[in-house]
């Protein structure tokens, strides 16, 4: 046992944490285990040379497709599989007084023998590594103890009971010149000793900027405090009517203490699964209703779904949320810098909530843990970062024979793989949904607390909405990039754009093939070179990911899955702006690129303070290479332009957005046709207090009870 | 007791049916009760003059708004309310050998005393009354016994085991000239004695047309049987490879008999509500989670929701699905006539399924019955045409304090008012959803069986998809018109269109108010004259129904509800086609008209065989009258262009579409902020077999159990 391994096991036993390591199961896409993390760290300890090693990311390098695909096919065929060698990648810094040198190591992790450094590359000049929780905390401490900052605060004549709270945020590039790696702070007031008080209801119009290297104060930015114009606190000698702020609490305990009662008329609603859930987990491979796939998880993307097969047929090689950008629409400094890349800058894995039984889902729930690390490289465990459960999704399909009055009805059961991330003030809920009709959906719920700034009471802004006295919630966008790596009955696919188009018609001289003007046809356009396309709901535009080598025997058309793109508004920032340049996935709804190993992050490898040369999606599209009957990747950009409502504060009710991947002539009939009938015997629903419909309803109830038949036989 | 009343009570006791009549409760919008129907019929019996009276519709005339609003306000205020006189409207025909004369009667139904004819108006010349089940059945019988039809079938050399099945359909206008009222039949083959066999998998390329007046055969239309061109069976001497048809069954019993097993790995999933549902019903007035409204139901629209208030504040006066059109895209005769208006031609009330306990929903369910009538005017009862239940809709809102790691999380409970209609081969599921954040959504699920026609095996069509051997499912559209009669804090409202628009930017000379090119603003345009507008997702276009007389004290903006229009493809039929003229609501997403009593049906009063002069939405818009700070109605057209997949056969998995009405600065904070925390103690979820995560998961479980707290305190 190496030094680090013994230290690790000591730590593990001391903390009483469990490793997510899964000895009985092996899959080459499983996240690094605690001991693999330890072995990786172990391999580079000696490179410290007395400097302080600061670990940013330690994660699995997924095997190249050329190596992985044969393995997956053998595995799917139930053959004995060999163990593929594992490789870890470490992003680590050597911190010194002036800053830090950042390097990327690749470490081989042979099953036996010690780990080895394969390669070591410095982070390219001009690129900035992302911040991390350790840096954020250190920077916050440095800020709150900084005399210049304290003096500036002292000038503000704050209420005696006000405490300053500072949230580390993301610094956005505002020039093409390299800027020192910086952490801006959104500063607020707290009027309570309870750390869960909603300080976002009392913003301070000051943005201090701290060096992410030295943690020194770089400068203080003062924010505009009128609805229009650039006047700041400095123009008002620091005067602001702080007393205008009112509590706007969300925490149920705080609300209760303040006498704000919760509604009491919502009765218990429980999901009971007497025979358990319908899925099985072997390690991180899940099997449910003809579906089988691997559930990976990493620091940056969070959930990664791989090798997705339905009834043994390959559908998708890899699905993940690749990146996202959140640009704000208030053009006034320093607000113009507010453009977060929550995945690239911080990481969906790093910020994943530890989900708790029965709080975030109902029914029988499985949780997946994640072996992680702290900045010094010691292993940590994130519990329940992924939850897995089934959900009833209403009627799956129904037909009633009007002659016999006999309905055939089924319920739609779905499988949900969910993770929830907290990015300072805001939350995203990512849920992959699998259904019995062989469809896959990604549901994104946007919730959490708006990023707020101060505005003089009585003022309104053209760039946002006042959501609490003195509190402006700025208009902004959320643009997600979903990476879809298809394998529709094989890895050589073609994306075909399909529009529904009216046939030509001239009332005076009706064409013989459209005499009455009602005809329409479907216009197809194959995307043969890497490029982009946009949603066009007015044309009923869909994108079919086809396998040009496989024909559906019933329809005579190529087997396919279709993507109905969400036609959300795209990037509002001007095409010549840096904000636009940075969002390499923000200008179109659909991108198609040729597959290349490790091209995973649409916004580029280093989005933090990026200025548009991040070598991301835009450059891959520019290759103009063949994507016809080829191994390709589809990228879908969608999201929401969020102009806040007062109703979005203090915590925003979930705004729900979904995209769908549906089989289209992939099967020879409805794949859900064999779902058993929905019956009262199976569902055991209850009749609501019959009230005024006593006779009729009892009748329904008795019929339902009597030998499991109701009058229509739907419960046969 | 009048003659008809005694007959009625005899019938009632004989059939052992229950009336939906609700003595203890009274509401002026309650549907006609069985005895009101009887009294209405009673009032016109004497007009028969020996002819056969044929009743098409008998329904409540809703009181004029001027009379109803004061009543509703008193009722909402809990004051003692007077009983408003009731009026029924009857559409009835006097059938004779040559056809029938159709009249519309208004009948007064005073609380005491006998019913009286208020008015009698003939159906305008050139307008056609809708078909009804009685006519459909009579026509079907006439067709199957018709010698000409039988002779034509005999020529086809059908397999000996083949039986002919004929589904009555809707006849579409193909000229502006009046055409006799007709019923076309879609004819199929059945190869089984079981009436639930799927005959839609064996279409016959013949469309016989029967007179809806005399039930005589008008003619036989032969259908094209190639993918392109007009060649019919006549061109092939009636030869068609009938043996190409294969069974494509959906009925679970038939499938079981045929050895087609249903999947067996889906385990029970039950919704338990140990303390019952959270709603209360008084008659047809429901109260749930600060919501209160009346649930009406009628022959044509089905569910009608009225007087919708949240926390005592008025939001909407009336919500309903007003009409829909389903035009088909195959331009070849006789297919070009396929354009159904399922509400106007048939009726969502008439075709509503009788829902059965536990087959169509889970949990504790309430059902509403509907007093209806048969063609001879005798009362009937439709049981369970509306079901009411709660559903868990996932996380309502969540925020985790990254400092304390304490999450505040709530679940979203929704109330669902649902009806399901069967229109011959096809089904629609309409569900109004009310949430705890004061939002209202309409969910439409399209399911059922595609309307199929014959196509020679091996052929493919530019106008549809082959979904089973020899079976073509034609491309078509479903366009719904939802009628939204708002009362946003009062009846004088204004609709404002709002786009999110980038600010001007010039990189060379950045404007001082948008130096970095990231700024955007919201462009508002009030709709002041009756007119239309279209969805524009690329501009993030929303429509706010505002009350210009009420200002939100927090934001300083007018209180409003916003409608995010579904940007679905609009009518594909050419603007100069009859099909387009008939769909008066098919050309735009949004229409705004001034309120007028009884302007309820977007497609006009008589859509059957209408040819574009139906006096519907188009003519109301043309009035060009004031809708600014006025009593107005918003009409939203949305739907789906449905190019069938093989996966949509034999029964289509639900295609789900939703529209949302959300408060926008209507409240002074999130209306859902007082929803109690989601806790394991309340939800009682179960942990999935821990598998490889034993220690970690047990830990989660124990923490959750221990005094109802999990490690994050979310279950506090």
TrEMBL record, chains A, B:
One of the GO BP terms on file = amine metabolic process
Q: Which UniProt keywords apply?
A: Copper, Disulfide bond, Metal-binding, Oxidoreductase, TPQ
Q: Which domain of life is it from?
A: Eukaryota
EC class, as a word, reads oxidoreductase
**UniProt xrefs under Pfam families:** Cu_amine_oxid, Cu_amine_oxidN2
An example of a GO molecular function for this protein is: quinone binding
The cofactor remark states: Contains 1 topaquinone per subunit.
Where's the active site on this chain? Answer: 342 (proton acceptor), 426 (schiff-base intermediate with substrate)
Stored PROSITE patterns: COPPER_AMINE_OXID_1
Q: Which residues are reported to carry the modification 2',4',5'-topaquinone? A: 426
Q: How is it modified after translation?
A: Topaquinone (TPQ) is generated by copper-dependent autoxidation of a specific tyrosyl residue.
Under Enzyme Commission nomenclature, its number is 1.4.3.-
Listed InterPro entries: Cu_Am_ox_TPQ-bd, Cu_amine_oxidase, Cu_amine_oxidase_C, Cu_amine_oxidase_C_sf, Cu_amine_oxidase_N-reg, Cu_amine_oxidase_N2
Which cofactor does the UniProt annotation name?
Cu cation
| Copper amine oxidase N2-terminal domain mapped to chain residues | 27-74
Q: Does the keyword Metal-binding apply?
A: yes
For the Copper amine oxidase catalytic domain, which residue ranges apply?
270-673
Q: Which family does it belong to?
A: Belongs to the copper/topaquinone oxidase family.
Q: What does the record note on quaternary structure? A: Homodimer.
Q: What is this protein called?
A: Amine oxidase
- According to its UniProt entry, this protein's organism is Kwoniella mangroviensis CBS 10435
